[in-house]
Predict the structure.
Amino acid sequence: MNLSSTLATLERLVAFDTVSSRSNLALIEWVANRLDDHGIKAYVQPGDEPGKANLFATIGPADRPGVMLSGHSDVVPVAGQDWTSDPFVLTERNGRWLGRGSADMKGFIACCVDAIPRLVTAKLSAPVHLALSYNEESNMHGMRLLAAHLASAPVKPAACIIGEPTRMQVVVANKGAAIYRCRVRGFSVHSSLRDQGVSAVEIAAEVIVFLNALQRQLNQAERHDGFEFPHTSVHAGMIQGGTAHNITAKDCEFVFEIRALPGVAAADIVGRIREHCARVLVPRMREVSAECGISIDEIMDSPGLDERGNLHLARALMPLCPCEGFGRVSFGTEAGMLQDAGVPTVVCGPGEIRVAHQPDEYVETDQLVQCRQFLDTLAARLERGPLTPA
């Protein structure tokens, strides 16, 4: 297969600096123009913050449900990483194509965009939808908006393939990804009078100790051997607070995440943390000062992908990859939101997750070849009729 066109598309996509904190509009407009060149009008959905947008387009008959190819347009930052080449210039090295987002997940998007001419000329019995979202790497607001739009649409997709890097293996389940910020307000005094104050740093540490105890309980209460870490996980990743070594800290905050197994609600786990704070910690703090308190705020909560809703889709797609068996991954994706919107979804894309977010991120040539072959096979399959299990 001649990949020159796909690589040229990937080169252009990598050149768009779509780190989540920046605008993705230039990339969205570029893809919309590519679609327009082939007579396909894209719906560009404005985001809930300036400079952000989703894209949704339908190739083929629009009056019936089809297969949606979905990718997020944003990438993680490169700041502080030791790259050996410009991260926003696609660079070939021993069959690997280096660039920020090459694996996660502009390689998949490039294959989809380059497949547009083939899809337009195919006699599709069911359409192919192309969807691009924003902010998957930060708060997933883009897919939240797009999923709500699809849920209320007169005709919504019958199935979705999210092209996160899985080495073109069909993934039927992933853990949820929820992030919360815990803020502790203490009462400042000179440290020599510590019994008259409340250290926000020390209370935050007590909350984190409770998180670790909760993790041990989760390890005993549930298990799903399909995942590398077979339990729901709770992890505190960032903390800051205090102003000096000899002052009881007035404020401290930390960020923690919950990666819940499919079918487990992160909100239920957070409820246990809030209950512990309200019952055990806050009363003790307020014996010193009524100003003290603990608040826990949601930053994002993306549900897991539950295989009980998509095994029929996986079985239909596996012969097209080809793929001998389906898998499960611990990283979060947008798939759960689409599943909640009534769109059966699997994850399958070129590249591998271990190089995503890393310096010198890359996608291999053979992975791009497999993805293009898969899309061509999918188009041929949809010429014969709607996608159904083999």
User: Anything to note?
Assistant: The chain has two domains: 4-174+304-384, 177-302. The longest strand covers residues 293-302. The mean pLDDT is 96.
